[in-house]
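WARN no homologs supplied; continuing
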Amino acid sequence: MIHNKLKTTLRRFPRVRDAVRSIRYIVGAGGILSPLALAWYFSDLWHVRRNGNAKFRSLVLQPCLRDRTRVTAVEPTYFYQDTWAARKIFRANPAAHVDVGSSVMTIGVISQFVPVTMVDIRPIEVMLEGLDFREGSILGLPFDDRSVKSLSSLCVIEHIGLGRYGDSVDAFGSEKAAAELQRVLAAGGDLYVSLPVDGECRLYFNAHRAFTRSYILKMFESVELVDERYQYGMEISLHYDPLKGFGTGHFHFRGREGSLVGSGETTNKG
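OK structure emitted
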């Protein structure tokens, strides 16, 4: 009864009704109530109500209070690593490419230029020409030894074994993931990986791990380093600098000729 009376009252005062609906939407979305943002939002809303296009009589309140910024927001980690990897893959122009667990958005774009098979422990519920999906773990990839000529895994290795994405907890998950990528990489094949770097090896539980350059090269000791880049904030550097603290390393490796370090007999995981 009280609820119905409140609805009736709000119909008589559309501005109050709009304010109540907007605040409920913001709170429900987990937003922060900024007085300044609310002020310009309601000012713009009332202006639209007075001077709006008559074709749009149906008004749905859906406040977006974080987009009025001085510059376009950019998340530097993914922006720089994804553009770096895409440039590398486009220039190499492989007949096919395999990705393990990277951003679906980025890999979807790459698949429109190079046929891509994406591997992840969680299925993707989209269908796109040029993009195939195979369910699998980076700890047991569904490929033969030394069979993949073009391979990427961007900002993935650091998460393995922390349970964040439903995987089993394993203190050596990152090392095992790096070994598995090297196992499937063909001799002369290209491997593109990115992972956090820091002044020392650190565990940010349960978000990710961060590594020193020397530890990364130790994890990838059976492949040859071709190129490296480091992202610190909005800057890209050719050199690892432990004094700059947390950042992201971009590494292009190439499969070496000869036997795999520590590998056994060839096993088809497919």
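The longest helix spans residues 35-51.
OK
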